[in-house]
Design a protein that fits this description.
Layout (H helix, E strand, L loop, with lengths): L5 H7 L10 E10 L2 E10 L6 E7 L7 H12 L3 E5 L10 H12 L2 H16 L4 E11 L1 H11 L6 E5 L17 E7 L7 H12 L6 E6 L12 E2 L4 E2 L2 H19 L1
Parallel strand pairs: 3-4, 3-5, 5-6, 6-7, 7-8
Antiparallel strand pairs: 1-2, 2-4, 9-10
């Protein structure tokens, strides 16, 4: 991991390391159908007790500083956090390349479901994870992937998306979702327009057995949790209030599903 930006370091500092904790981090190598994948694991090794696991899905830049910091924050809260690799170990796009790379994966729901499931298996097999208490969260592109994993019928108890795409090629698959769903969205996000939100809501209403909720944060654009993003002309910008509130909402959701 390269040194994160000062803004990202500041976000990390909002979750202090608990006394006596021993946070271990590092790459995790695994594979699917001959493709090498490299995720990132963060875990407190001071305790040998099994605990909930959280699968973290990266944004369109892949497994980089941002998702690694979020994994560390989750480990400081007592979870085993694995940032899954959806792109493949050899693919780490630049900002200029990211949109084109993500577009290919948005168009292949079967592939992103399979790659996310491979990460889920890796997390479930970790000796410190309670396999009956696993959630998946995703940021931006990762929100899309997290929902596709849930729509595949994956055995997770909860799903949280942060400013994630809500579109899907298979809206009827909402009926396959097994865990509870929390969608945290920006009310001023042009990347996830109102039509897309309504389509998501319609699909979820057609699956009455699924427990879901959608929260909008006023004035929040796309990428509102990412402190290094400031491109309002393109509809994306960090908003500290929405970042803080969404993190608090996720923690309350985890208290509910893992309780």
């Amino acid at each position: 991991m390269t040194a994160p930006s000062s803004a990202l370091t500041a976000v990390l500092s909002t979750v202090p390391i608990p006394p006596g904790a021993r946070i271990a981090t590092g790459p995790v190598d695994y594979a699917l159908d001959g493709t090498a994948l490299q995720g990132y694991l963060a875990v407190d090794e001071a305790s040998t007790e099994r605990r909930p696991g959280v699968l973290v899905i990266h944004d369109w830049l892949g497994v980089g500083d941002y998702v690694q910091v979020r994994a560390q924050m989750l480990a400081r809260l007592g979870y085993v956090a694995l940032a899954a690799d959806i792109y493949g170990a050899e693919l780490r796009p630049t900002m200029q390349e990211a949109a084109g790379v993500a577009k290919r994966f948005y168009a292949d729901a079967a592939l992103v479901r399979a790659r996310a499931a491979a990460g889920l298996t890796e997390l479930r097999d970790h000796p410190l994870v309670d396999p009956s208490r696993i959630a998946v969260i995703g940021y931006c592109f990762g929100g899309f992937v997290a929902l596709e994993l849930a729509r595949s019928g994956a055995e997770v108890v909860g799903v949280v998306t942060f400013h994630g795409a809500l579109s899907t090629q298979s809206p009827q698959d909402a009926a396959n979702i097994r865990g509870k769903v929390l969608v945290l969205a920006g009310a001023a996000d042009p990347v996830v327009p109102d039509d897309q939100v309504r389509e998501f809501e319609d699909a979820m209403r057609a699956a009455p057995d699924v427990d879901w909720q959608l929260v909008h944060y006023s004035g929040a654009m796309h990428a509102f949790t990412q402190p290094d993003v400031n491109t309002p002309d393109h509809g994306a910008a960090y908003q500290q209030a929405a970042d803080r509130r969404s993190w608090v909402a996720m923690r309350a959701f985890f208290d509910e599903i893992f309780g």
